């Protein structure tokens, strides 16, 4: 990690996040660490779990082919990936942006978008808000840190966010797997006076973007010859509680908590990254 004074958000950065629902940090991960992370990513894909524990069920295996790979809780399987998923600097940034007393890990997602120069459609991540899938949390008190393992641009399917959409509440269109993003856009009901104007998050490897759980985001196809690799570190404020009886009751974290309505998401399955003094 680099000097904290150079990477922590300023008051102006925090105000930007509050206004727009996203913020992009400077480079947090140096090249040596990125190389280790890429190597350990490949080990997980090869089924080499250094901890002896597999990621969450349904993780990508070679039999599934060369499509989009999404592996939940890769930090269970590999200590190098875990070191990133629980990185205290990422936690402190999330804590400051959310103005929280503490930040815990919600879960991680190891992501691999393969390259295909001949593809001009497909391979998308549809427009969605993370909280649409996380309504088992009583409040949208969650934020995602998306760590780029490679340089990202529109050519290789960088994330695109819709500024100010975190203020719209849950919209009527949410589908991570939808490929027709324009159809989604046309069918989305947004507040009068607001505009759906996506911003591509063009980033260097080692940079980290942060977006609120209600911020609409998605990504297009990777039309390069190389994969787009990343780790999404999903975070929550320390006061995040379970809300029973929602569409989120099928989420893995409900089972991991094993709790009752109103219980805090806390304990060993939800490690604390940072606590403010």
Secondary structure topology:
Elements: H1 4-7, H2 11-20, E1 22-27, H3 31-45, E2 69-72, H4 79-85, H5 88-98, E3 102-113, E4 125-128, E5 142-148, E6 159-161, H6 181-187, E7 199-200, E8 207-212, E9 217-219, E10 228-237, H7 252-257, E11 272-275
Antiparallel strand pairs: 1-8, 2-3, 3-10, 3-11, 4-9, 5-8, 5-10, 6-7, 6-9
Strand content: 15-25%
Uncertain runs with pLDDT below 50, 5 residues or more? none
Query: Structural class, from helix and strand content?
Result: alpha+beta
Mean pLDDT: 94
For the sheet with most strands, the description reads: 7 strands, antiparallel
Could you tell me the number of beta strands?
11
Q: Determine Rg (CA atoms, Å).
A: 18 Å
Order of helices and strands: HHEHEHHEEEEHEEEEHE
Helix run count: 7
Please tell me what the overall shape is.
globular
Percent helix among the residues?
Answer: 10-25%
